[in-house]
Amino acid sequence: MSGILAGKRVLVTGVLMESSIAFHTARLAQEQGADVVLTGHGRLSLVERVARRLPRPAPLIELDVRDAGHLETLARRIRENVGADARLDGVVHSIAFAPQDALGGDFLRTGWDSVATALEVSAYSLKALTTACLPLMGERGGAVVGLDFDARTAWPAYDWMGVAKAALESVSRYLARDLGPHGVRCNLVAAGPIRTTAARSIPGFDVFREVWEARSPLDWDVSDPEPAARAVVALLSDWFPRTTGEIVRVDGGVHAVGA
């Protein structure tokens, strides 16, 4: 099969709904020639149902990034699903979560337990997932791509998830430093607001939509995840062989303009 990911195998996390960037990344990766492996946590039957809408079947492996056992056995379970000689060429990190009291504008009152959860699931998990997959990346190396939201400024209601995204950006840079000798690149795609399941859990999401409507130089459609997914697929490909530690912003240009 032809395409910029022909002959590659890519692990995609976070495919929960058809509206997600992760789902469209998996779809585009298959269309570009990749074999895709999915992971899910919790509602696996829902992930299985959504996965059936992909162009081709994709194995699904349970993965809770807070479960050390899941991480320690991930490489083995991937091999059990796709073959003993299986390797990975790419990993997509589309995992984020913050408890409700860590969002919504009560930043000063959020307790450490909720902050710790947000940081572990949304930032530390990039390192945990990457190191779990590293044994499968082999001598050819590969690419890790995470999904981000611009953390340079404080956004309304985003609160500790914004802090977690800033941590994610830092984790990505350190991974780029330490994975380079293994031939593994690590980059992030900072997407503009997309009306996904995760976005619906953010109080005041419409504020983001209004900001993009007012400031985006390019038209921005909050219901269209494909532009961000295209960037993820491009970074997984060999078209970015010497790019690492980078944040590619797919936000219609909002990051580049003022009020």
Name of the level-1 CATH class: Alpha Beta
Tell me the structural class: alpha/beta
Tally of individual domains: 1
| Overall CATH architecture | 3-Layer(aba) Sandwich
Question: How many angstroms separate the termini?
Answer: 46 Å
Structure characteristics:
Rossmann fold, 259 residues, globular, seven-stranded parallel β-sheet
Task: Provide structural commentary.
The chain has a single domain, classed as NAD(P)-binding Rossmann-like Domain (Rossmann fold, 3-Layer(aba) Sandwich), CATH 3.40.50.720. It is an alpha/beta fold and 259 residues long. Helix 5 packs parallel to helix 6. A 7-stranded parallel sheet has the order 3-2-1-4-5-6-7, with helices on both faces. The chain starts with 8 loop residues before the first strand and ends in a 9-residue tail after the last strand. It is globular. It contains 9 helices and 7 strands; from the N terminus they run βαβαβααβαβαβαααβ. The mean pLDDT is 94.
Fold blueprint:
Layout: E1 9-12, H1 21-31, E2 35-40, H2 44-51, E3 60-62, H3 68-72, H4 74-82, E4 90-93, H5 112-133, E5 142-148, H6 159-179, E6 184-191, H7 197-200, H8 205-215, H9 226-236, E7 247-250
Parallel strand pairs: 1-2, 1-4, 2-3, 4-5, 5-6, 6-7
